[in-house]
Amino acid sequence: MKVTRAGAETGRATAMEDAIDEYLDHLSVERGLSQSTVASYRGDLTAYSRFLTTRKIKSPERIRSRDVSDFTGSRLAEGVSPRSIARNLSCLRGFHRYLVVSGRLAADPTLEVTGPKFQRSLPDVLAVREIEAILTAVDTSAPLGIRDRAMLEVAYGAGLRVSELITLPLSNLFFDDGYLRCMGKGSKERVVPVGEAAIDWTTRYRLDVRPGLAARAPATDVVFLNARGRPLSRMGFWKILQKHVAAAGVRNRVKPHTLRHSFATHMLEGGADLRVIQEMLGHADISTTQIYTSVDREYLKEIHRTFHPRG
Known about the structure:
This protein is mostly helical. The protein is built from 14 helices and 5 strands.
C-alpha cells in the first residue's frame, strides 16, 4: 500500500497525485523553498485534489476553468476567508503554470479564474518614538541585555525577517563596509546596509558576550545565540521582544514582523524610493512593497487630523 505525498492512501498513485508530487519536488529542490512553505502548498493542492476526485477528475488534463472556479467557491462556502482563498488560488496558478511550462498541459485552466475581493489590511507599524522606547528599555548592564539590544537594532535597522535574523551567520557581517548579507525567501541572497547603532551594539555583543555563550554548546556560525549557546528559535525571539515591549510600556500589538514593517514605513516617510525599499526587503514583486505607500498615506492623514485646525 502506497501513501502518496499528496495525502491519498491508494494502491497506485493517480496522474493528479504524481503531478502534485512532481511540482512539490520542483518547489523544494529547484526553487529552494522552505519546508514550511512547501507544506503549505501541499495542503492547498491536497484539498484541490480531493475536490476534483468528487468530480471523478484524477488527471490534470481533464481540469477546466469551471472546476477551478467551483473549487474556490466551495472553499468560500466552507467559511474560508477570502484572503486564504486568494492564497489557495495563487498556489493553483503556480501548479498549472508549471504543468504548462513542463509540457504536461496544453493550456492553463486558471487563466480565466478571478479571485475573491478582499480588503488588504495595513501592517502593524510603530511610531519612531515607540521603537526608541523599546530599544532603550533593554537593560544593557546584563550580558543578555547587550545581545537583545543588538538583535533589536539589527532587526529594525536592516528590516530583516525573523527567520533571517536568527539564522544570520557571522561570515555574512561586513561591518567595515557597513552592510550585511542575508538569505531570504527562496534561498535568495541580498545585501542590506546597516546603521551605526546596529553595528556598534552587535560589535559589542560579538566581543564581550557571544564568546561566553558560544562556549556552552557545539560551535555554530550563527550570530545570535540563546543562553545555552545555541541558535535562537522564532519563539525565543518573540518572547524576548515581548519582554522589552512590556518594559517600554508600548501598548500596541508588536510581533517580530512589526519591526520590519516599521523599518519600511519609516524609510518611506523619510523619503526613500520605493524600489530601494523593495531591494532592501527582498520583495520579488514591487506590489508587495506598495502596501507601505498606503501606510504612509494613513500616517499623513493622522498628522493632518492631529495638527490641522480643521482636521
